[in-house]
Amino acid sequence: MPDLAPIRLLIVDDQQEIRELCASVGCSLGLNCLQAETAEEALKMADKDIPEMVLTDLLKGKTSGLELLAQIKRRWPLTEVALMSACGSIESAVEAMRLGAHDFVVKPFPVEKVRAVLLGMTEKVREARFENRSDGQVSEMVLRPHTPEPCMDLEELERLTVQRVFELVEGDKLKAQKLLGISRATLYRKIKRYGIETRRIGQNVPVKVVREGPERVILLSQS
Predict the structure, then answer these.
(1) Are 139 and 145 in contact (CB under 8 A)?
(2) According to the model, what pLDDT value does residue 150 have?
(3) Where are the strands (E) in the chain, listed by range?
(4) Is the preceding peptide bond at 51 cis, omega within 30 degrees of 0?
(5) What is d(CA 22, CA 19) in angstroms, rounded to the nearest whole number?
(6) Share of the chain above pLDDT 70, in %
(7) Is there a contact between 55 and 22 (Cβ–Cβ < 8 Å)?
(8) What is the CA radius of gyration of the chain?
């Protein structure tokens, strides 16, 4: 019999409009959405009712979003956590993934991006619910020791982070540089190193084709 109980999502951000936007997306997916302005408030709420999903900003208060992620994963290892930030760096994204984050979202983000992240976490929570129910060990969500899954190496995490930023800014190098917090020279080295697509949508610019395999072709701007 399917588990019809709504999945609990805790949204943590010091900007009310961001919290409400994410909550509206979460509610549209049938999630039970709660909001907290700080990491401290979020932990107090989690102590009373453990969230199955957390979407948190990096935060600039006493406790950062990365620290919140680490505490949640230590205390409730099966809770899925995604981070978001308007000034996310490659280092922050890599550290978030190392600590067990499901995803790292760069602001400003399209609603569909948040929706996709929440859907991904929802699927993992439902799988965990099914496994626990099948084993007769519902309490494992709290008690099971956290064994991190083998993660990608740091270079692959960096490549994915840079690629996500370029997708968000539609190939705009200047915006990507600001969001990543790196110099122009460093950005160009990473574009070349990882074969990142930098063609801006809607622009008629010269491109070259880089073939990485029989089924993958990348278009690179010559600008």
Answers:
(1) no
(2) 40
(3) 8-12, 32-36, 53-57, 80-85, 103-106, 207-213, 216-221
(4) no
(5) 5
(6) 73
(7) yes
(8) 19
What Å distances lie between residue 203 and 9, 163, 209, 221, CA to CA?
39, 19, 17, 10
In the chain, the domains with their CATH numbers are 8-143 (3.40.50.2300), 154-221 (1.10.10.60)
Residues 187 and 180 sit within 8 Å (Cβ to Cβ): yes
pLDDT of residue 212: 40
Which amino acid does the sequence have at 132? Answer: N
Q: Which whole-number Å values give the CA distances from 26 to 63, 119, 166, 182, in the listed order? A: 24, 9, 25, 33
CA 64 vs CA 69, 83, 175: distances in Å: 9, 11, 25
Distance in angstroms between the alpha carbons of the first and the last residue of the chain: 57
Supply the pLDDT for residue 32. 95
pLDDT digits (tens, 9 = 90+) for 130-143: 877 655 554 444 43
Rounded Cα distance between 116 and 110, Å, is 10
- How are beta strands 207-213 and 216-221 bridged, if at all? antiparallel
What does the pLDDT average to over 26-46?
95
Side chain identity at residue 127, one-letter code: E
Tally of CB atoms within 10 A around 9: 26
Instruction: Find, among 180, 170, 183, 186, the residue nearest to 221 by Cα.
Output: 170
